[in-house]
Amino acid sequence: MGRVAVVAVTVTVAVAACAVASVVVGRRVRSRRKWRRVLALLEELEEGCDTPVGRLRQVVDAMAVEMHAGLASEGGSKLKMLLSFVDRLPNGSEKGTYYALDLGGTNFRVLRVQLGGQRSSILEKDVERQPIPQHLMTSTSENLFDFIASDLKEFVERERDSSETSLPRRRELGFTFSFPVKQTSVSSGILIKWTKGFHIEDVVGREVSECLEQAMARKGLNMRVAILVNDTVGTLALGHYLDADTVAAVIIGTGTNACYWERTDAIIKCQGLLTSSGGMVINMEWGNFWSSHLPRTMYDIELDAKSPNPNDQGFEKMIAGMYLGEIVRRVLQRMSQEADIFGTDPSKTPMIAAMHEDDSPELAEVARIFREVLEIPDVPLKVRKLVVKVCDVVTRRAGRLAAAGIVGILKKIGRDGSGGITGGRSRSDARMRRTVVAIEGGLYTSYTMFREYLHEALIEILGEDIAQHVILKVTEDGSGTGAALLAATYSSNSVDSVQ
């Protein structure tokens, strides 16, 4: 009986061991199945975001076509192709002291720029930033602009100008107003609506430069709004001041937009428009560009549907910093729902650039962000690697599409190397002129991988021979300094040349 008992115990232990092993193996099998599902989702994302050079060239062509359509008629394109009325850009001859006011959010800035009369000769620049009290953002036009004018007056009175005479001189101001405006002249525009937390009803439908000038008059400040622009036009002005070959400007940051120099005779929707220069800066509002060639995924569709502006700003939602992290979050959320790789759904938008550019062996920065920002501890290394890959796929698409947008502008104005070739001659860089595009925005300047993908795609689309003539040049503070430069260009000593 003893031997039977021992055998029975042995069998029982063996059965139990087999059962435990079966559970462990079953878990591993299920785990592997889940991981394969996650990898399948990654592969699906890569295919959906794929931007081969053939597709990018289709986007280039579509951008150029939409630009033509937007210039031909109002509402003829997703691109608004707005007239800025800026028909002259700073050329380096500007001399004297000029001011700028940059209002586009919960802070405003005032600047004083002293120009020396030679290209790139900014002798001195003073900048002051002020927060706008919360109550003024929903108050009245008089209260808001009186507050701004008071600060501007104090800033002006601190100027030490040895050439100041006893007679008060009229100062020239460049006004950067980054809200939706219908421009009516180089120095005036009507507010269409407020954004960014502002809600002051008695300004909507009014001339914003007039509101500011009336406030300056009430405060005893002898100053004229010489120019009203958005930040993109200011960036082009600064870029052209620093380099005469600058023909376009792009902002790629939280949002994105572009403007460029266009021939007047190409602006068909304004027949009879005359400028002494034969050209004008066009504000594209390119964030709203759309084409069937854009690689749209289910995550883009979900993001658009949940956004405050569905079916709007389609291009911006694929390339701008405001949206890239949210796309990544939605991808990770779906992976978590399919395979529970995080233990919980990521509910906060991740810091995509910091995770993507983590080059430590253990991806310590990715682990820290998950732990401290997303509140998800103990993420395994293989999952952290997966997250970096997702960031890479989304960022690569964004950078390459931004490059296609830039080449689209160059194609429209004949600066992509394909124009001027006749008689069946092959494409050559022999006639390609040096072409500079001014760029601002943290996504481009601070996110190395985004910038590298954009440059890589630019060379792929244009070819190395042509790409060597296209220079992307970072400018700093086009929204402020550029506005002051334009104030100098359009000072009261000059004559408005747009008819």
From TrEMBL:
Single annotated GO MF: D-glucose binding
Keyword Ribosomal protein: no
UniProt entry keywords in alphabetical sequence: ATP-binding, Glycolysis, Kinase, Nucleotide-binding, Transferase
Residue ranges constituting the Hexokinase C-terminal domain according to the UniProt record: 248-488
Enzyme Commission identifier(s): 2.7.1.-
GO cellular component: a single term: cytosol
InterPro entries on file: ATPase_NBD, Hexokinase, Hexokinase_BS, Hexokinase_C, Hexokinase_N
Keyword DNA repair: no
Pathway: Carbohydrate metabolism; hexose metabolism; Carbohydrate degradation; glycolysis; D-glyceraldehyde 3-phosphate and glycerone phosphate from D-glucose: step 1/4
Hexokinase N-terminal domain location: 42-241
CDD domains: ASKHA_NBD_HK_plant (cd24020)
UniProt protein name: Phosphotransferase
